[in-house]
Specification:
homotetramer, about 200 residues, mainly alpha, DNA-binding
Chain lengths: ~200, ~200, ~200, ~200
DNA sequence: GATGAATGAGTCTTCATTCAT
DNA sequence: AATGAATGAAGACTCATTCAT
């Protein structure tokens, strides 16, 4: 076989990653064997290893790629100017996360949980993840400041704290949906609205 | 040989569980070997196996015991009548979670993440966990109803949604603290206050 | 496609052999991978395999070619009539062996050791090697007879034994130079002279 | 099983080493698989690995143990005072090497060749080996000085050169016996006598 | 003729579990 | 009851070789 084209190479990598995702999500990162992935990918051991030199690299790729792809989808929502009001923003972002299971056998929420757990023992992954979430939290902080300006958040509360609260809600949505399974984006959004008291309070 | 007393037996089980926690949290559930735990416990392989017949049982015990112990600490806060107002409740519960970590070599947040991940592939654990969190959410729903009665939550929002939002915040606090590490209980509580707009709105 | 010329074919074979030598000597016969050789040769896997159909063939070629090339250099020294006296002959032959190593990335002594070791498990190589060394020993026997005629060796000693001793010295020089590294041709020659006692004994 | 006695432990190690020797000598160091050794030892994979933590350690042990055991046998011959005359010494040492196949399936000469080859790529082994042979050569130098005092070697030749020559003969005997197989200790000894010319020269 | 991606049997090593003492 | 040596199935990864292009 002559040299393979770059697209074909990328397609093969994607094919392997797809297989890895599907196995990881079913069995977890460490309980998945390379053989599982190899069989799922439809390729041979050697082929898989020629694209990803070790199981660890595959794990890193599976997790960071998820992170990056999700990032691409969420950023536009966070960047919108003026920012969406709290409940709307929450509804949009959680819906995006929920919808992300674009590919068959791929559920972002499960992968996210796996990645968080793995980050506890994989320093490199931990760093990458921290960088990524720090960035998201930065964007949320900007959004929070916008809310304060728009009278949608208390001005005396540090925007950073609002960002932390909001990020918690997002993370928690992922966990709750993954484990209990009965949480819809609208529900958390409604819950936040219920706790905000905005309407109630404003109704003189 | 004389039969071992029940207390001694319980003490041994605790000793092994302690060892398991410390290893699990450092290495993760699957990357931890029985040998790690055996060495950490200071007992022999045979002894450990006579108390926990398999690694899976040990994993189950480590996770469910955490769940139960935490439950015992949080229940009183949720049960208080009348319920604490939203921000206070959040502050109390997260602080309890945070404090629970103090025990040497034991960090509830890490164990929780491990447990959630494991629940994805262990049906029995998943059921146990669901049951437990469903109960917590039930309590939260009762609390939310209390808030609505007290004018601390919008009455038209389903109490269930408020409970879901609140549980998300708790889960998310655990994740954010485990990964980013720079989140204090007061901060998320303040963030919620900032988003509630209660004071602001009520001002005029 | 045009058939490749015989010279070009021979040049390619030499190029591959050169690459193989350089790898073998660095890593040993079995720890060298075909990929090492392929990369060192600058050719493709397919190309290398079209010249040498297997790793074993390449090993055989690397070892026997060395043997043959060395043979070509040593034969003239052994054939000289009348034969050089013992110490001179030893000096010349070891110097020739030593000099043969100069070629970049090629050290005959290392290759010889590899070949000897491989001959222990490769029957074909063992036969080839035996034939070759039996021939050399035959030449040495002729030389020994010459020495006896010239009064340079005891006439009552079987010439064959002298040949065996002499071949041992040569083999041993290779080993000692390869492992200890601090042995010069003149030194072994001088050592033999010292043990010969010729001058001393003849003195009175 | 309770703690094993030290002797039993040593016996097991010996049993594994024996198995390793027998395989190494048949197949060579790298072509031997751990599975070969495991099967030959009659133990399980885990057991073998609990005594020798890696194949490399086993190789090191196999080679250095040979070196040490041989050392114990040869040292007394070299230390004798006054030293045996050259031919006798050569005869004794080569005979000792030859006889060394104490154990079934163990041939020192083959192991020596394997060790020398391995030392080319294993720095640790190379160092160990150098130290060992440097010591032997030191002893030979002392012997050579004795010969010179006794008029059995030319006094003007550096004793070191005589030692180098002698060590070459020993190494070469090993190689020649391993490859050509038809060399007896007496023959090399006789060959050296024939080259010494002692009797001839002394005749008049 | 040449290329180099793909194959898959085979390698070393680990580790949950057992059981003779 | 307790010990810890032993088991052996299974895991990650390699590498000689092939063959579609």
């Amino acid at each position: 076989m002559p040299k393979i084209s770059d697209e074909k190479r990328a397609a093969r990598r994607a094919q392997i990653l797809e297989a890895a995702w599907s196995c990881f999500q079913r069995e977890g990162l460490h309980a998945t064997t390379m053989d599982d992935i190899i069989r799922a990918s439809g390729l041979s051991a050697g082929a898989v290893y020629s694209y990803y030199p070790s199981k660890d690299e595959l794990i890193m790729a599976a997790v960071t790629t998820s992170l990056t792809e999700l990032s691409g989808l969420i950023a536009p929502i966070l960047i919108a100017e003026p920012p969406l009001p709290p409940q709307r923003l929450l509804g949009e972002v959680t819906a995006t996360i929920d919808r992300f299971a674009v590919r068959k056998d791929y559920d972002l929420k499960r992968i996210a949980l796996l990645g968080w757990t793995e980050a506890q023992r994989n320093e490199q992954l931990r760093q990458t993840m921290r960088g990524y979430y720090a960035m998201v939290r930065g964007q949320l902080e900007r959004v929070a400041t916008g809310w304060q300006r728009a009278g949608q958040a208390a001005p005396e509360t540090p925007a950073k704290d609002i960002a932390k609260l909001f990020l918690s809600i997002l993370f928690g949505f992922v966990v709750q949906a993954a484990i209990l399974g009965d949480v819809a984006p609208e529900e958390v959004a409604a819950g936040l609205a219920g706790l905000s008291l905005t309407d109630v309070a404003r109704a003189p």
